[in-house]
Batch of 3 targets.
Target 1
Amino acid sequence: MRKLIAVVLRMSQHPGLQERGLLIDRLTDLEAEGIARDVPRRTVEAIRATRLKLRVEGLMPKAPLPRGH
């Protein structure tokens, strides 16, 4: 969990498309490392959830959607 927090904090200081991709890659590596080292399942799930949240956020439009008809 400490590695997850450190990665997210370090990379979130540099917002941008390339940095987001690097963060997702790093989280993928961290998830694989956690699985290989047999860390608690909840930790791996937290890493996976963080990675997926970043991917979904990257797909969301940046401007608010128009309201009404």
Target 2
Amino acid sequence: MKHIVTVQDTVTAFADWMEPTAAELDAIEREMPLILAQVDLLDAEITTMDRTPTELDVRRVRRARRKVLAAGRELANTAAPLVPEVGA
């Protein structure tokens, strides 16, 4: 009979020493407006899934889509901190 064992790293994937770095947290913070806009869009779409959308539902989804596009545009247009090149 073969024993099935788990890989320890998989079981303890969220160990104390595996915290996100400051750079990763900063990136999440920069992307947060887009993330929140996408959540709003998903919420609006889920609301209309099990019924015929009303005019108000259609407006809500349309407004949420515009919000996602605007947040994505803002994120794309903001200059990310430049990382110095190696040897520069």
Target 3
Amino acid sequence: MLLQCCKFSLRAAAGPSAVAEAGLFVPGALSVAGYDNTTFAAFDPISLTSVDQAGQEMGRNAVRLLLERIEDRGRPSSRVTLSPALVRCRSTARLAR
């Protein structure tokens, strides 16, 4: 089994169609994953496995930090670390051992 990983889920969504045209199936012959977990990725028939990069949380933190910095321009800069999460759907299969 091969794994195709695309930076954008919309680009990865084209993978299963091209594979089917070649007479193969996702996730049988090929697993496909995206890297932005768009809402589109969860819809059938694609149901695309994707990495969720915590975009909403990232946005909330950016606004909060900006407002804090505007309020106190002398405030030291801050760093926020967020962890991505794998959202498993039907476009990937477990590797055979």
